[in-house]
Task: structure prediction
Amino acid sequence: MPLNEIHLEAHPLLELAAFTTCFPSPLGQTPSPAWLQEFLGPQAEAPIPSPDDEFRNAVRRMLRHGGFKPSGRSKPASEYLVRAANSGDLGSINAAVDACNAVSLHSGIPVSVVDLDRASPPFRVAVVGPGQSYVFNASGQEMDLEGLVCLWDASGPCANAVKDSQRTKTHQGTLRTLSILWGSNQVPGRARQAADWYRTLLESLEATTHEVGFSAANSPVS
Result:
């Protein structure tokens, strides 16, 4: 059943864009082409304006709304990508992640990619309360999520603008993904602009994309 809508808890600064992608073959059989890998370089010409300090600060303000501190090892994922690209350490992973990283790098918008066959509906976006964490890498390291706005599935938080959960990350067998772009409404329209370019990249790989909308949710955060 296609995912058409995600419930969104009220957030005064958040501007989201989301879509699903169906790949024609598993990601392990879908190599990232050279033209896509070129966008992993900081000097590549992307069809979107480069982020400035104003936009980076707007994203950080959005993440601080619930009390989270987006700094140090908890800074937005898009800022990590800039550092990695400038040092030559941003390498190819797979077609889905490379497209995500390219868009995030050049737009300044943190992007999450979730394997839809590892996640379970219903989905919602909400700030996380005290005592919640998840493992974010294969080494078993955990991230404290208190105060951070996250994507939730039926099992709990699974993605955010800093680090996504290991539980729902893509892998060699991934066929379907959900992408979330974590923008700020203080720079309106940028998340949509980045999502449009992102979908163009994926559709150039013969993948099929489908926009996902958001609806107001009034249920309490648990």
Summary: The two ends are 26 Å apart (CA to CA). Residues 41 and 85 are 6 Å apart (CA to CA). The longest helix spans residues 190-203. The chain has five helices and eleven strands.
